[in-house]
Amino acid sequence: MRRFAFILHPLRFDDFARKYPVTRYLPPRLVESLFKHVNPVLAGHVTKVHSETGEELEGWLIGLPLTPQVILNAPYEWVLKKLEKAGKMAEDLGAEILGLGAFTKIAGDRGITLSQRLNIPVTTGNSYTTATAVEGTLAAAKRMQLDLSTAQVVVLGATGSIGRATCFVVAPSIQRMRLVARHGDQLDLLKARLSHQFPHLSVDVSTDARQAVLDADIVIAVSSAPGAIVEPGDLKPGAVITDVARPRNISAQVSQKRPDVLVLDGGVIEVPGAHADMGFDFGFPPRMVEACMAETMILALSNRLENFTLGSEIEISKVSEIHHLGRRHGFKLAGFRRFERAIDDGEIERIRGYLAQKRDSDIPNRITF
């Protein structure tokens, strides 16, 4: 039996009510302030995960009751002490490796210092998140019959840890890429690296996310922005959008107002084991988790008890390696999903049909709502 632990935290105020129902009746700022003084809690117990190799896995979900705003705005040493307490809890429970979820892997030096203060290895899960984001995007583009030789691909949050790795992983499959982030100097450096390594690739940059996606055929959204940065009127008909970010980069209104685009939840993974129990309501159907948590599980099952993905730079070789290990154990993409619900072939056909009708009617690419 292999064992892991994973740290999670509320992404929105409403998430507090999943464990503490009374909080829905209190002012958000009061709840946020009160929970700064609450220690990590045991949020769930993962059981009955069975690898296709025969290995069995259990794990513990450790809740850190801090919102993204608190994690990002508080002094890192204070956040680090909270993470260290969570890590010590994981050790006491018997976990062999610890995964960092959501904004706990963005704060500070992205797990490096924490790993030095614990007796078990730490991973952010960003390698497997990158691998499955690109896998899902290319599969959706093929399903939508997009021509990758002419498609304009936009990466939102390109200079971040996952964004940068995504650029290098997807680059061999495409011809045109636009990098989007807040800081122009970092974008220029990344553009130079990509252009040098992939001479076939045409690369341009932008610091304006909404403007950058107007002509995009494919969007991979991995920005760490605390809220939506793309609205319904920003997207081109027929576009494929993979939203890996949590909280989401793509407004929820897109699914309501744009029946002519395909928006996918990036990094949702189906776990092996017919009766696997994730021990927590992630908002997904049974046996489904985020890719960052899946990486921790895969490493535990593989007995790869090491600091696999830490810091701001992801090794591309590790992206390929964890992808291979995941397949070996039976982890796989949970099909096409949008805002926590499955997308079937019929819906994709309807999107393509709606797009064809628009083209026949000569409706402009950009729609104003």
From TrEMBL:
Source domain of life: Bacteria
SUPFAM superfamilies: NAD(P)-binding Rossmann-fold domains
InterPro entries per record: NAD(P)-bd_dom_sf (IPR036291), Shikm_DH/Glu-tRNA_Rdtase (IPR006151)
Gene3D superfamilies linked to this entry: NAD(P)-binding Rossmann-like Domain (3.40.50.720)
Coiled coil start-end: none
Residues in Quinate/shikimate 5-dehydrogenase/glutamyl-tRNA reductase domain copies: 141-256
Designated name of the protein: Shikimate dehydrogenase
Organism: Sulfobacillus benefaciens
